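Teaching assistant's notes for section 4

Start the section by putting this record on the projector. Ask students to predict, before seeing the second block, whether Catechol 2,3-dioxygenase will look compact or extended. Collect guesses on the board.
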Amino acid sequence: MTTTSVLPASTHVGAVHLNVRDLNGTAAFYATLLGLNAATQTDTDVILAAQGTPLLHLHAAPDLPRAPVSRPGLYHTAFLLPTRADLGRWLAHAARLGHRIGSGDHLVSEAFYLSDPEGNGIEVYADRPRDTWTWRDGQVQMDTKAVDAAAVLASAGIDPATLDGAHPFTAPQDTTVGHVHLKVGSAAQAARWYADTLGLDVVADLGSAAFLSWGGYHHHVGLNEWHSAGQPAPSTPAAGLAGVTFHTPDLGALRPHLAGRADMQDAGDHLTLRDPWGNRVTVAQR
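Reveal the predicted structure now:
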């Protein structure tokens, strides 16, 4: 599925917003795990940044229930590190913190997985060079194989057997949210909505999951129905995903494309609407 471009190819993920029951505890968890700093901190909100770039906006929601696994919403926030050596440094740091970590070699990237204390999924990954990615008929070839964790550690000069050479981790310059992966009631319906509404290209269609991007990236948005097939938009609030922001240099084509939509709010420098499962989507001009 290829769409008429309504956003520039350089459009990408900005900050992810989470409603959290324990604001201070969750903020401390992400700061320690990813080496982020609190760019803004109040009694109700914390914005966590990597070298000045906001990645997570946490909103205090102590009275909200924890979301069940079957609820549409966040599958994981994926933090993209600039190099494989950065990923190795992070992996050693996370191992020393005692986290249980899953992994996946996706051919286009090497990734590690865990969850925060409130059950929100986390991916930390590094891309392989783009010239090593394989494309066939507009689809990027991805898989899930075992990551050679020892080689990832060795790329950072860390002994895989002893973790000698590991140090506390600070998110390096150019750390970003590379993609966001959502749970939806129908991957096919969600893919159509994101393609038709935001001009993303479907670059991998697995039936029960779809991956979409701008500008030939392997994916900025992942969608799956593995735990949430058939689920409608939630009717009551819960902790978890509060919204996703995408950054773009130009809203000029998107604004008329969305004109007349009852669910679209235009604040001048950003447009906000909701996907079919109630997830708030903001496209901001930066």
